[in-house]
Amino acid sequence: xxxxxxxxxxxxxxxxxxxxxxxxxxxxxxxxxxxxxxxxxxxxxxxxxxxxxxxxxxxxxxxxxxxxxxxxxxxxxxxxxxxxxxxxxxxxxxxxxxxxxxxxxxxxxxxxxxxxxxxxxxxxxxxxxxxxxxxxxxxxxxxxxxxxxxxxxxxxxxxxxxxxxxxxxxxxxxxxxxxxxxxxxxxxxxxxxxxxxxxxxxxxxxxxxxxxxxxxxxxxxxxxxxxxxxxxxxxxxxxxxxxxxxxxxxxxxxxxxxxxxxxxxxxxxxxxxxxxxxxxxxxxxxxxxxxxxxxxxxxxxxxxxxxxxxxxxxxxxxxxxxxxxxxxxxxxxxxxxxxxxxxxxxxxxxxxxxxxxxxxxxxxxxxxxxxxxxxxxxxxxxxxxxxxxxxxxxxxxxxxxxxxxxxxxxxxxxxxxxxxxxxxxxxxxxxxxxxxxxxxxxxxxxxxxxxxxxxxxxxxxxxxxxxxxxxxxxxxxxxxxxxxxxxxxxxxxxxxxxxxxxxxxxxxxxxxxxxxxxxxxxxxxxxxxxxxxxxxxxxxxxxxxxxxxxxxxxxxxxxxxxxxxxxxxxxxxxxxxxxxxxxxxxxxxxxxxxxxxxxxxxxxxxxxxxxxxxxxxxxxxxxxxxxxxxxxxxxxxxxxxxxxxxxxxxxxxxxxxxxxxxxxxxxxxxxxxxxxxxxxxxxxxxxxxxxxxxxxxxxxxxxxxxxxxxxxxxxxxxxxxxxxxxxxxxxxxxxxxxxxxxxxxxxxxxxxxxxxxxxxxxxxxxxxxxxxxxxxxxxxxxxxxxxxxxxxxxxxxxxxxxxxxxxxxxxxxxxxxxxxxxxxxxxxxxxxxxxxxx
Length: 838
Known about the structure:
- There is one protein chain.
- The chain is of the alpha/beta class.
- The strands form 4 sheets. An 8-stranded mixed barrel has the order 12-13-15-16-17-18-19-20, surrounded by 5 helices. A 5-stranded mixed beta sheet has the order 6-7-5-10-11, with helices on both faces.
């Protein structure tokens, strides 16, 4: 009836069944203990960090925990407004169901409490949800936890009174509604599960209120339901705790992954910024995704233009939209979904060809289908250009652009094989420039390089389908020419000589050089490149020996000459080891009084197998092999040791090869010879040729100045036969010049050589330099030289070179012989004598 309160009959349960006496106290006590134990186990605690984070720094762990708690709060607030609306709706439902049977004051109070708490919850969720979804401060998180806990406690406390107030007076049907509502409210712990403390603050009061209401009703069925409700509550609370831990772990993993993604992104950006590599990514249709600035920079397009652009279209970014080499293979891999690595793609950009090296790997979705590609690319244009340059330098000369020695051997080998099979000859023309060293030394290496380029340009027109031009090194060139025979090869060589020998213009300088050519043919002369080159070299050596600027074809006797030279070289090495060399001494006589002023030490070699070998035969071989340094060291030591036994006013002159003079050990050899012999430095005279002055290296100049500073005399030998001899006298002061025997031979008043000698003597007198005439063989020659104030003479007229044992006799005999030749000098001949340097 309306307006009347219905109540259950005393002693009846939920369905009106009688209660069982004696069952209530024991069941109630056991249930209370069970709920207490559950509550103790469910005491809220901060979840522990997983053990795998132990290697992380404390600051990082604190940040992870802060962000995780923020995420838990954000998830709780996200569901809070829906949960609050649900609670408000349930409160209205309860008021509607129990408006006639329950105290209306309580119902209104319950509705006010639940409604107010729900409104506060919705407002808090609305206000703080966006903030906690970001990165709030620790203070804000603590405040959020406290507000959430307070709201949950308020709602839970409000609902905890509902069973205790409404259950005792309710009938069986309403009691069932109350139990169902209580069970549903308890399950709301799942909604608040992300934060375990909030879930407990809400659920525990509801569980306690429901359990107390059921357990104290005095109904056995209600008591049983209380036990079941306790078990159900325990399950819900345990599940809520489990869900809270899972939520914590899930959000922590999300925080860690986000942090790692940021780190990886930063590293990738630094990687792209610091290297030539760049990262690319496409979707399943092969269109670009996540285009970076680096990719846009390499492609030369804006990021917006590349976003969504097919990768194949990017590979066709060259002129005319066509793919370069290698692009089709990349496109095929993209279409097939197969991985590829280090594929080089050529892209013909408008500004020039560029090369990219690409690697890619397919990305699969959860179903195993292709979801796109990820890969790395790099611009290898610079390395490809370098590789091409290296490949060019491997086969071509960088100075002239001609093929080099490596390519020569390849082509020469092919021509030798072809000639051996077909019998058709191929000629090798071996070229050596005449006078190039003079230009290079006089005008500098820059001029020399320009001259070599000019020679290469003059040789280029001779190249055709059967003729190849090479630069083998230095001023040596080679021509391979398919020909009908030696006559055709010789004609080509003469044409090359005419072309190369024409005057050159190097900047403002005029230069003239020549060329000598040696020719060898395959298969007649040789069947392999090494032999062919060696025999052409022999022919070239003979051409230069015969006057340069000519052609010489290989002849069999050249090999005999070479074999003889090799044998001489071997004997020369043995001669050094066996001390087969000795010195003979030729006197230098003063034209004023006939006394011996010096002896020139001349090398002699008496071989036990060859007999007497002239210096003209073995000195060139010694210089070519470098043995001249050891031979010169022996001559210095022996000459100084012998001169130390002579009277103190007599000097010794030692010829020094330009090769030995340019070595850094030369001054040490001089010092060692003087120290070992005890000879005074002023009694040693070093004879050098003008070729020493052509090589103005630091060592050469240092040796010249050091010799003069030590008081050692310097004589310029073979004067007048070299280049620009007079200029050397001003640039490099010497103590003596020796007029070459070629000027003294057949000297007379009408001979042009006399004019040269008079000019040399006049210049020497002006510069204060002593003069010695070499090769004097007649009294007439000596008389002419004496009349023109020449200081000393040397030659067979006085004495040939004699062994050291005869020197004392020569010192005594030479003045007597001289006075017999020139008894009393005429008064007109008595003139001031040049005494400088004596």
